[in-house]
Amino acid sequence: MTPNEAWKLFQHHARHRSFCSCGWLTSYGHYGEDIFTFSLVRQFDTLETWNDEYMQLLLELKHPVTPQFQALKSWNHWSSDYPDLPQYFRAVEANPGVQLVLANDAPWEYELRLEET
């Protein structure tokens, strides 16, 4: 899956409403490893009033660290900083690091998983 395909899927998923509150997170970095990750997360509350945990649907793409990706360090951005999702997506797309990642049209390894916080 290319980063651009993953990004389009992430935005498509945003059009599907949920009965629980959601947060959206985009992040990237190499975190001291030889692998650069680009992560797209949709976070849900559990709808259980006694439970303060969240569920995260995570799409994580992995690519060997290149000099360009090494220079990016790490970055993350939550949707809660914006009044609506279209503004959030535009802000993420304006990030120079995200632009570099999305411009890479080679397929990356990816993993889709559901995690509890």
Give an overview of the whole structure.
- The protein has 117 residues and is an alpha+beta fold.
- It contains four helices and five strands, in the order H-E-E-E-H-E-H-H-E.
- The protein is 31% helix and 36% strand.
Distance between the termini: 26 Å
Mean of the pLDDT scores? 89
Biggest sheet features: 5 strands, antiparallel
What is the helix/strand order? HEEEHEHHE
In oligomeric terms, what are we looking at?
A: single chain
Q: Strand tally, please?
A: 5
What overall geometry do the principal axes of the alpha carbons give? Answer: globular
The level of helicity is 25-40%
Topology:
Blueprint: H1 3-14, E1 22-29, E2 35-45, E3 54-64, H2 67-72, E4 75-78, H3 85-94, H4 96-103, E5 109-116
Antiparallel strand pairs: 1-2, 1-4, 2-3, 3-5
Based on the model shown, name its key terms.
alpha+beta, globular, 4 helices, 31% helix, 5 strands, 117 residues, single chain
Can you summarize this structure?
The protein is an alpha+beta fold. It contains 4 helices and 5 strands, in the order αβββαβααβ.
